[in-house]
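BACKBONE STRUCTURE TOKENS:
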Amino acid sequence: MTTTASDLDLKSVNVIKGLIMDSIRTANSGHPGGAMSSADFAYILFKEFLRFDPRDPAWFNRDRFVLSAGHESALLYALLVLRGTLEVSDLQAFRQLGSKTPGHPEFDLSIGVEATTGPLGQGFAMAGGMAVAEAFLRAYLDNEIAGHYTYVLASDGDVQEPICLGSAALFGQWGLGRLIVYYDSNKIQLAGPTDRVDTINYSQLFTSMHWHVQEIDGHDHQQIRQAILAAQAETTRPSLIIGHTVMAKGSANFEGSEATHGSPMKSDEISATKAKLGLPDEEYFLPPDVLAHFRSRFQDLEHERKKWDFALETRCNNSDFTQKWRTITTPLSDQDFDWPLFEVGTSMATRKAFGTCLMAMAEQIPSLMGGSADLDPSNQTVAFREKTGIFHAQDNPLGRNLCFGVREFPMGAILNGLALHGGVLPFGATFLVFSDYERNAIRMSALQELPILHVFTHDSFFVGEDGPTHQPIEHVSALRLIPNLLVLRPADANESAACLALALKQRSRPSVLIFTRQGLPVLPLPKALPEHVSRGAYVVHEPQDCAPEVLLFASGSEVHLALEAALALPAMHIRVISVPCMELFDEQDAAYQEEIMPSGITKRFAIEAGRPDLWYKYVGLAGKVWGLDHFGASAPATVLKQEYGFTTENLVKFIKG
């Protein structure tokens, strides 16, 4: 009897389900149910539609696939085994230390994983960021060189996270016609049926957000094919395919049960399920006919890559195209930029300095994309918006300003997607107090080692009359606790430019840039400022004609207060140290740290308009820190400055003891 393609498709899906069950059983940990309910769609997508280079998973113009339902990682890993980028031995090491198959997919750890997912909803948002980058680059270069689809597999849990719907509203607004989301609606989550917590009509909801919506039987292969083709044909709206499925489809006794959501199946259930699926009762069964069938399109895919290589080579005969190609493929860390200089003795809020620097960046970096979370005037991004235009995938794909609206968390995750796609430099701005809303996306920036610019203004109680709800107290310290993140709080306008230049030199970590609302004096800082800033901390004032006897640390808007206090206390022989970035200073060798803060000087002070706790690592337990350990109040900033003691007079009194 001849096995037909349809029979082989069904057999292949069942083999994938067997690999899923075995991987999770070996690890004694994982989520088999959703992975099994999504298997039909994911298989058809990978085998018949997803465009990639089997020999080069990092090919620039590959289709992107994001598993937003990161708990279904065993499904993705099984598909990558069929694709040839993972081995069965990798499945056997699922969720083990040092393996390529962690519990949730991790970018750059497993070849073929486009984003680190797991926190639900963020994969959906990151995928939209990828689709924005694709639309921009397709217009910047051309359709053949930079035209692909972005696919997403999302779950019931994804759509329940507000970040998902906040992002979806933007993606419909932006007309991302090459974003295709499959929502595996198996109506089960870890705690039980979804209808206990969610009865939203997602078809109507997404339609109202300008999406193209289809509903299908998510286990019917022909319906899946037709839905993907229809989604590809829709060019002006993102597409949502709602696949109605059964949790743990094919299991012997647990179809539709939440028991399969977050726990492995028992061995006897796996054996019974394999018998039901027509599989032998052996672990990691992967027959040659399934592999050959899955890879039957590989020759055509390799031919598509060769055509692309030829097209790229041909276009590079044109100098204009060549310059554009170099622009998006040359790391910014390898480039140098011109920065504005600010006159010493003048006064300028560092947020305004950022706005000036942003325009310099816009001129020199054609791939700079980003915007503000509805705070354009306050964040100083209005001029950027007016110069570069507002992005829309159809109406203005070369627009570089992204209007995020009041959506800080979606903004942060979308920036991650832009960076993951490559070819663009993303930035996003809001008030520092709202970094709490964005925090998990910033954490994911750091975890994925993405050199993104996260910009925050209104950095302290100097916000004033808006009161404690808008006055950040703990936020700078909280951000400093995130690993692999640079937190940069510049002292004045020129240090702001140096911090931005430093951020652009990063290859594998994001930067948080923190700017003031209020004006600050432009300080007489040392020459070679970018070099000093790159060390994280440096001396900005030495006592005259003698060695220092007191160390005074400060960052941001408190550096000028420290300088004024040191000048007011010449007899105390105070060295003032600006600390724009604790993380970089902590990374310096012992010799440099000893040079800046000699261990023999034990009389130490620090000042920052925020939580004092982290400064004790520099001043020691015997040192003293002037900070804030309480919320602010609604009053003019000048009043609060006096009330909270952030004045030269009070700092002098504090140091004198």
Remarks:
- The two ends are 94 Å apart (CA to CA).
- DSSP finds 28 helices and 19 strands in the chain.
- The CA atoms of residues 565 and 652 lie 5 Å apart.
